[in-house]
Amino acid sequence: MTSEPPPREPRVPAYRFGVTSAVAWRIVAELLRRHHHRESFRLVHLHPGLSPTGMLQLCSRVGEDDAASVAFLLGSEPRVVIHRPFVPAAASALDWGHEDHVSRWLESADPKFVVDDIQAALGFPVAKTPSATPRVLTYRVLAALLERKALAREQVRASSGWYDTSALGAQIAEWARALPWLAGETARLDANDWVSQAVVAGEVWAVHGWTEHPVPLAEALPNGSVILDAKRGHACLPNRGSDTELMPLYQKAGRRLGPVVRHVETMMEGG
């Protein structure tokens, strides 16, 4: 009589990069919206091993080992990894150690419950009333833009003005250094002070067509790119000298996100 083979672990479904990226950004944008009062909450773009997809990490405090963080792996087999120091494992009924967040999001009757579970696993209290700050609005627009592109099966990605790789170390992207409003600030930073670099340049993101390298290193971004500056709440096309403040558009549209997203998408099409 032969023994039964051990059960295999369920395989994580493979998704297109656009889908894994859009879902991760939707979750991140909602967490930032709920916890806008946490000034130390930062978004970090990581590319371990120069991976072509990398991960999106939201940290309660950048550069501190005891900080709570959630990282979304953006590959074809998505994972969410939560670091929760000093928080009991029983904080959540779900094991969010290496969960497939994309399937949970797509299959959920209400995706907000997925965010609720991640929030609980991080050990964060119930959020205050969400607020439409310029920073929060920018990230919501970025997430919605990636979602629209994913549904249209267009290959785009978001690249941070600051990124970290295990091979090249932490750097500010050249295209970010070329931005007039960042040039002065980045020039004053210590080349080895990666925390300050992340705080200054990590709030600037470029949404652009697919590139083989994790982020575009050249000063000139691909045609059809738009830069979203969460610190100022602006969308811009540097090569055309176009710079749009998002909050007035949002207020003019009756605080509806759709018209703002369509405006930014039109900027990309004209860029």
Secondary structure elements and pairings:
Elements: H1 17-34, E1 42-47, E2 55-59, E3 69-73, E4 79-83, H2 101-107, H3 112-121, H4 134-151, E5 156-160, E6 162-165, E7 169-172, H5 174-177, H6 180-187, H7 194-201, E8 204-209, E9 226-229, E10 234-237, E11 242-245, H8 246-252, H9 257-270
Parallel strand pairs: 1-6
Antiparallel strand pairs: 1-2, 2-3, 3-4, 5-8, 6-7, 8-9, 9-10, 10-11
Helix pairs in contact: 1-4, 4-9
Task: Tell me the total number of β-strands.
Answer: 11
Shape: globular
Q: Give the helix level as a range of percent.
A: 25-40%
Beta fraction of the residues?
15-25%
Q: What is the radius of gyration?
A: 19 Å
Task: Give helix and strand order, one letter per element, not per position.
Answer: HEEEEHHHEEEHHHEEEEHH
Helix tally? 9
Mean pLDDT comes to 78
Q: Which structural class fits the helix and strand makeup?
A: alpha+beta
Which stretches of 5+ consecutive residues score pLDDT under 50? 86-96
**Strand order, largest beta sheet:** 4-3-2-1-6-7
**Roughly how many Å apart are the termini?**
69 Å
Major beta-sheet overview = 6 strands, mixed
